[in-house]
Every structure is written in C-alpha cells, then in structure tokens.
TrEMBL record:
<dbReference type="InterPro" id="IPR001882">
    <property type="entry name" value="Biotin_BS"/>
</dbReference>
<keyword id="KW-0092">Biotin</keyword>
<feature type="domain" description="Lipoyl-binding">
    <location>
        <begin position="80"/>
        <end position="158"/>
    </location>
</feature>
<dbReference type="InterPro" id="IPR050709">
    <property type="entry name" value="Biotin_Carboxyl_Carrier/Decarb"/>
</dbReference>
<protein>
    <submittedName>
        <fullName>Biotin/lipoyl-binding protein</fullName>
    </submittedName>
</protein>
<dbReference type="Pfam" id="PF00364">
    <property type="entry name" value="Biotin_lipoyl"/>
</dbReference>
<dbReference type="InterPro" id="IPR011053">
    <property type="entry name" value="Single_hybrid_motif"/>
</dbReference>
<dbReference type="InterPro" id="IPR000089">
    <property type="entry name" value="Biotin_lipoyl"/>
</dbReference>
C-alpha cells in the first residue's frame, strides 16, 4: 500500500491493485489520458524527483505537489523518524584508490546537487564524483595528477 500526500495537506491510501485498475493511456512522454467514472481526465507529470518520490502533476490544468510514501517510508515514519531526513554530507572521500584526473571546482564555488566535482581514475575506468548536495566548496584536499587511497578526503563542503 502507498500513502499519497497531495499539497502537503490531503493524504490518500492507494493499493497497487487500485492503480492497475485505472483506465489510463499514455499519450506522450509525460502526458496521460485517464477515464474515471466515464469522465476524461488529462494528467501531466510536470516535474519528478524519483529518488525523493516527489512529483508535480497537472490534472485538468490544476497543479498538485504529490509525495509518495511506500511501505518502508511508512515504517520509518511510524518509528518517529522524519522521512527524507538524511545526514548532511560535508566531506567527499575517495571511494577507492585511484588517480585524480580532473578537478572541476574551486574553493568557494557554489555547486548544486549532481554537479561534477572531479574525475577519479581507478582500475582503468574514469569515475565522475558528483556533488551529493547543494553547497559551497570549503576546501580541495587533492591536486590533479595526485594518487589517492580509499577514504582519503578529497573535497570538504562548508557546513
């Protein structure tokens, strides 16, 4: 069962079976035609964040913000933890030993989540390390061409 929260105000319980029973046709990439009780409904996914299960959906020209909570999210909430709360990542460490091929940021630079920070070559493969969050680069602890060990501090964010 899924718990759907619309505009942070209205909550609905939805089963997988009830979703499968919907008379839905995908018309284009993010557009759907839904028939409910012989009434046509046009739905469009305007924005989506699959990892956070957050969506902005336009239904018949009205925009809704939708949060989806699966069984695990509901268990976490029942235990009293905040859903979506995560540890603030302030340090980027080497996930494996390798060679710094390229550094794409500077100290003091503002970055957004998923911006490429640097390229680490390991086992003859180039690995792009991306920013885990929005923030400001506090310090860069490595230089291009430097060999690094696993768990070595590469970049620190301002807290």
């Amino acid at each position: 069962m899924y718990k759907i929260k619309v505009n942070s105000a209205h909550t609905f319980d939805v089963t997988k079976e009830s979703l499968e029973e919907l008379d839905t046709v995908k018309s284009t990439n993010n557009n759907y035609h839904i028939l409910q009780d012989h009434t046509p409904i046009h739905a469009e996914i305007v924005t989506s964040n699959f990892n956070r299960k957050l969506y902005t959906i336009k239904v018949n020209n009205t925009v809704y913000n939708v949060d989806i909570y699966d069984a695990l999210d509901q268990q976490i909430e029942a235990l009293g933890f905040e859903i979506g709360a995560s540890k603030q990542v302030n340090d980027i460490k080497a996930p494996m030993p390798g060679l710094i091929l390229e550094i794409n940021v500077k100290e003091g630079q503002t970055v957004t989540e998923n911006d490429p920070l640097l390229i680490l070559e390991a086992m003859k493969m180039e690995n792009v390390l991306k920013s885990p969050r929005d923030g400001v680069i506090k310090s860069i602890q490595v230089k291009q061409g430097q060999t690094v060990d696993k768990n070595m501090l590469l970049i620190a964010f301002e807290a």
